[in-house]
Amino acid sequence: MEVIIAKGLIKDYNHTRAVDNIDFAIKKGECFGFLGPNGAGKTTVMRMLYCATIPTEGEIKVFGMDIQSNGSTIKSRIGVMPQDDNLDLELTVIKNLIVYARYFDIPPKVSKKMAWQLLEYVDLTAKADTTIKTLSGGMKRSLLLARALINSPEILILDEPTTGLDPHSRHNVWDKLKDLQKNSTTLILTTHYMEEAETLCDMVAIMDKGKIVEVDSPKRLMERYGGNLEQVYLRLTGKRLEGDLV
Amino acid sequence: MNIKRAFRVWQRHFAVYTRLYRSSIALNFVEPALFLVAFGIGLGAFVKEIEGIPYIKYIAPGIIASSSMFAATYECTYGTYVRMTFQKTFDAILATPVNVNDLIAGELMWGATKSMFYGTIIIIAISAFRLVDSPLVVAVIPVLFISGLIFAEISIICASIVPGIDSFNYFYTLFITPMFLFSGIFFPLNVLPPTVAKIAFWTPLYHLTNICRSIAWGKTDYVIQSLIWLIGVACLIAPVSFILMKKRIMK
Question: Which domains does chain A have, with CATH numbers?
Fold first, then answer.
């Protein structure tokens, strides 16, 4: 069953076309990756999925509902881990989660319990009462992941979840995401790391200049085009993925 | 727009504020105190009285108005801009069931609340120094919320069109400071050419000053007219601030 269906999506910023007429469908429980270099339009697609950017043309249905008219209902069932760190810098780690839970109308008693469970899950209980400034980059990513899970989302959107992390922290995040996959959470992520796509994704959409040039499972892509995912990407787009050291 | 979700945004700002208020309260409270001392006592030594009232007592109710104005404008220019661009707080909030209109309503409500709060502090302070005649001065407090909404709306409009944070200097130099000086806080406007009084009539601070002064002296002159003016303008500008800010946020 498809939880997200997008048809004819276009997004123009001033005179540049960031997303150029793309279609995709994402099944429940699947991990769907958008793979592409910076500027390929991945973040714009993610933002359109959680109603933070309005498509110039085309339609998106999430849980069978149109995002324009059912934004709040849809957003109450999804979690978003953004690319930029947008935590509340002035608040403590635990308070960040509790304040965020309020947006979902989670009662304080429940959210407090939930916040502690999530901090335990991402290994941040020792930091609960410290401010965001004292956290390392990896810890901030972990907290953003915890925050995205506060409403027990059915769909989790992850925009470059491991960019800028050291290999150890990166594997940490991957382990958490694999756990979520087992619980049949639908994962949608953007990445420019081949290894990330290969490890996590059931389906990969390769993006270049706002277009989806190919969609398939990583395994089938490698069979069809030969070589590893990096080579498939190179063949399809004529470029190497920047920042990828695999 | 959903008022409950707008209130969630208000609650977020309140949570942040209660952690930071020690450093920001000085900005909004020490400054009006300085004005009162410098003008009321310093200049007051020469001016003595205006319209038969000791000068410090003449300007004190006006400081309620200006202090509440600055609280809302700082909050919804610099504060809103920082949350929107540098801290990306808006992105975080918009990924939740809170929609863009709820978010803007929350910003406005918070700006108006701060306006009311800082005006109330001045009311308490000048009452303690016996600079008001009537206990009715507490009736000014709800009015401060309405005028606070106007100042917040104007500031949000400004924040929605500025190219960068430095551009707020224009807003303050060309709009807020002249309003502060020529809204009848420091001297009656009839000493200036009639044009100035005519322009002042179109500023919210002029009407708020009228209301504060009348009520603080236990009178009711101008109160109803100015209150209607404030409510009308708050309602008129609101849609503009929503439309422009929504355009800026959603791109």
Answer: 1-77+154-246 (3.40.50.300), 88-152 (no CATH)
